[in-house]
Each structure stands twice: as structure tokens, then as C-alpha cells.
Request: fold
Amino acid sequence: MLSDIEIAQGARMKKITEIAADLGISEDFIEPYGHYKAKLSENLYASLEGKEDGKLILVTAINPTPAGEGKTTVSVGLAQAMGQIGKKAVLALREPSLGPVFGIKGGAAGGGYSQVVPMEDINLHFTGDMHAITSANNLLCAMIDNHIQQGNELKIDQRRILFKRCLDMNDRALRDIVIGLGGKANGIPREDGFNITVASEVMAILCLASDLDDLKERLGNILVAYNTEGQPVFAREIGCVGAMTALLKDALKPNLVQTLENNPVLIHGGPFANIAHGCNSVRATKLALKLGDYCITEAGFGSDLGAEKFFDIKCRYAGLKPSCVVLVATIRALKYNGRVPKEDLGKENMWALEKGIVNLKTHIENMHKYHVPVVVAINKFDSDTDPEIEFVQEFCADMGVEVSMCEVFAKGGDGGIDLAEKVCETISLCEGSDEGFRPLYKTDRTIKDKIDKVAREIYRAEGVNYTAQAEKAIKEIESIGFGDLPICIAKTQYSLSDNPQLLGKPKNFRITVRDARLSSGAGFVVIYTGDILTMPGLPKKPSALNIDCDNNGNISGLF
Reply:
């Protein structure tokens, strides 16, 4: 059996100019990065003004398990299948982070015969967007420390600097550090730390900005510190917003690539969903809606994280109205939620499947709370038995949702034709319905009210507990006038609760909020629960141990 990278390296890619031409994009609007990837220029947006938008399809999933779900693989396979049935679809995905690539989670370009290529480029440096975000973030940090060193005119309290440096790599040693050691010339010593780049507010801003002017305004609105009198200090007062914008001007342009079957893909932005808002950029999604009759996009991890933030943050700000949700699951993962050990997931176990399917049921119910129709995609494994498949099909039928057994990993677009047809049919049946999409909560409620709404309605918690630090942080955020923003809850992806050990549909639990941080530039309040870290560490055996490059530049071991 070929590995993902071997399949990708055997792909017959079209030149990126051909992919653009298939979308009706003139060469004047593309900025090639080699033969197979390109940036799309600012002028393309103006040329498409007035064109009707296509239908927006969100791909999300149940809570991830070690058994694997394949959300991105299904997204790619669905796009390929849409092409096979004659539909003009554009896929819009997030960019991978080097942290997971060299750590344990892997990349974000799909798998098997449903991948985005050139896979190695996408999973590594790509077009340099991550580096640009890292540089802009760290320029602001350097300017803050230089301001203090040069006299501290803003009276920044060095004990209350909120904005951290970042690096696109898992490196636990950088979570908490001391900088400025070595004498007066090296700055003023203080405690600091690093986030991974995908958790940076600059990443969130890039993904939510509508254009360069909006990007610049959002960068200026970043809360970086408080002064000695307890007043907020924003990035615009530091004076480097123009320079940060200059570093990000090309990174703001979406990247065009292709699937193994030469379907168009926009890959742009990459915030994690467990510690950030988990969606690709607004600009890429809106562009895909103009370029195709269907835009297929995905939101990170389970629907309790990625989809909730997609609906309550991204759709709210961008005015997006999704037409359908594709909810990805596997029979293996459902049995894992029924407490079957990983090594036994290949064996038929109807009892565990019946017990674990409550996780799927909860995610379906949650998506219906946003008044969007759902199609379930079961990523099929050879070990799935006929009784297990029939049980899942009957279960979904009883819930009133379509279900499709997908084989896109093994068969590419051919393995997703049934899913594509059911998605198109579901969208068609729901057109003109009075029950349109709407977010879960109104932003004019208090921060605690919004947290409680998500905790009870989406996580199914009995309530919320707050630490003293969280109480203080929320009160301060509301006191400076930012209580009416959406919330972005940082939570484990492995459970509907904030405890990764509670599988299925946990009961009789409360969420514990330990802190809150204002992301005033991005336009949301980050709520921290559990033990979520904004700088991950590497596992005992990182994926980096398997990756190599020969004398001809051929990469191996990359999944």
C-alpha cells in the first residue's frame, strides 16, 4: 500500500495557470510560486464584484479519536466527487502548521487518493504565509520591549504585557521564559513566553480581515498591555502597524493549488480550533463562493469547537450563510466512544457502537441548532461489517438526516459520488426555507451569558465554574468596553466536555473557565478551559524522526 506522500508524488498535476484558467481567472490575476502554486491578486476581487455567490458547505466532524475520522480527506474527496458529477466546486482549506507536521497530528492536505498537492510544499513552507505572520507578530513584540528600553513614554507596566512572541513549531521550552538578561544594553528583564504561530492573534486577524485596510485597523486594535495606571495600551500606540501590514500584504492573498484530480483549492490561514477559531480565511471563502457554484470548507476538530466558532465568529463577521453541514465520522471512532480499546476497533462490536453513537447524535443535534441541514459522511474502513453499517444508516434515518458511506481515501472522487449527490439534493430541498442559518447567541449578552449558552447548548454541561483569575479577567474586559464581542472557547478537542477522558456524551459535569484574554484586534474574547496550551510540546517519538530528504531534494517520510 502506497503512503500519502508516495501517492502525492505520483500525481499528474496541471500547471497552476491551467487550474486558474479552468476557473476563468486570467493570468493577470495570478502570482505564481513555481509551476504548481500561486497567490491570487487583489484585483481579482474587484473583477468578480456583483457575481452571485455559490452555496457554502461546511465539513466538520465528531470529536476526534485515535481511530481517525478523516475530515480533511472527506473535504477533498467531496470536492473531487463534485467535479465528477459535473458541479463547479472550489475547496477552501486551512494551511498546515509545522508544529503538528513535525509532531504527532500530521499535516492538513488530506490523505490517500483525496489529497491536495503539491503535498510537500503545502505541509512545509508553502508560500511563506506562516513566516510572514510570525515576523509581524514578533516585530510588535520587539517594538514593545524597545519602547520600554527607550524611556517607556506610554508607561507600560512590564508585569502586564499581554502580547507574546510566537514560533510555528511545537517547543514546550518556550512556554515561559525570561528575556532581557545580560545587562542594561540587552533590555529590561521580564517574564515572557511564546505561543505557536497558529494561536497568534495576528493569525486570527489575517483570517478575519476583509482587505488591507481592515487588516491594518485590526492590527492597530490589538491590546498589547496595560500601563502603570491600569489603562489599556493598543498596538497602534506602539507605532509599527504600518510595518506589520507591509510584512503581511502578500500573506493576505489566498493561495491557489489543486487536488489529485486537478480540482481547484484555495488554502489560506491556519488557526487551530482548540486554541483559536479554527477556520480558513474569510477572503479565501468569499473568493471560493464567487469562483464556484459550491464552496466546500472545513472547520477544525469536532463540531463543538470548529463548527461552533465557524458559525458564531466567522459567519457572523463575514455575513456568510452556510447551506449544508457535512458531519464526518467513522464506525471505528464511534466504537471508541463506546470504550472499545484502539487495538480492538477492527472487530465487530454492536454494543459499543450503540453506546458510542450518542456522540454522533449530539453533534447532529448541535448543528441543527444553527438551522442548517446535515448530511453524515461515514469514512468507511474495510473492517466495518454489514450489521454495523446498517445500524448507522438506520440511526441516521431515524434522526431525519442523510448518510453516505464514503470511500474517498481509497477511491478518490469516485468514492464520494454518493455523498456529493446527497449534499446537492439536501441543499436543493432546503432552498427557500424560512428556517435560515442564525448564530447560537447574540453578542450583546454578557460574556458569562455567552459562555453559559455554549456550555449548556453545545457541550451539554450543567453549568460553568470560574476561577478567581477568570472572574477578574472577564470583569476587566467588560470594564474597558469589549464585553459585546463573540467568544472563542479554548477547550480539549477529544471530548464534548473540558475533560479529554470523558467520551461519548458526558453527563453531570460542569465546565471550568480558568482565564479569559481579549483579542480585540481579531474581535473576540478567548475563554480558556482545562489544560489547553497555546504552545504545544513534541511527543516522545515526533514525526520529524521519520522525515528525510535525498540528494535530489526528494522528501520521504512525510505521512
Remarks:
- The mean pLDDT is 95.
